[in-house]
Amino acid sequence: MPDPALCDAVGTTHAPASGEARIVSLVPSITELLFALGVGDRVVGRTPFCIHPRDGVANVPRVGGTKTPRLDRIRVLEPTHVIVNVDENRREDADALAGFVPNVVVTHPLRPRDNPVLYRLVGGIFAGREATERLCRGFEDAVSALESAVGGLAERQVLYLIWRDPWMTVSRDTYVSRTLALANLRTAGGDNGPRYPRIALTAELLDAVDLVLLSSEPYPFKERHVAEVRARAGARCPAIRLFDGEMASWYGSRAIRAMDYLARFATGLENGR
Length: 273
What we know:
By secondary structure, this protein is an alpha/beta fold. It has helices spanning 28-36, 54-57, 71-77, 91-97, 115-126, 129-150, 175-181, 203-207, 223-232, 246-249, 254-270; strands spanning 23-25, 43-46, 81-85, 103-107, 156-161, 185-187, 211-215, 239-243. The chain contains eleven helices and eight strands. The strands form two sheets. Strands 2-1-3-4 form a four-stranded parallel β-sheet, with helices on one face. Helix 5 packs antiparallel against helix 6. The model has no long low-confidence stretch (mean pLDDT 95).
């Protein structure tokens, strides 16, 4: 009977791969996950955004971006598996890859609690039970520690900015928003409509939130942008902080580290840091 843990986001059930698997990962966080599972030596292609672990990926060939994969480069590498993501990669590219790659593994985590499911899918295909369950235990322990750390903290209304010119934020129907919610940080400004909406950064919007977070990705917000946002606020200026975007948006093994980051960030806010 097929293992339900090996069923991907589009309903395809994958068989465990042999040690001869050749993997192209078009998802940065999953590239990092493959190395965390101990199978980084099987990764033969990656995007330029697959930057972790730095030493591990240094010699892995680049095959184009998440939205612009070079199919010709991928074909030459003769992968047995390509890993894609519903949000990060285009359907038409996944369909084209399926024409010459034996296995296209589709992922789509929507909330932090989807990480153990992701570990068991990717780990079950490539790494085996021991490495997979080690990560699952690490994630559950990290979430429990975060919940203990923020259990007594008040909820804060947060505007999480991911782009400038135009200004963009995240809706609550995103992995980012649901991750922040674990630390009692409730996103605002994008509750109806697109998942990553454009917004008018008005004094009225800023005055309605407790905190503005400027994410380090996909737009590389810097300290100078803190002053720019502050200048748009009215009489009640919220707190404004730079935020490591990987800690809210990267699923996979980095999500374990993110739980500690969120705990320290949220308790730091409570203590005025």
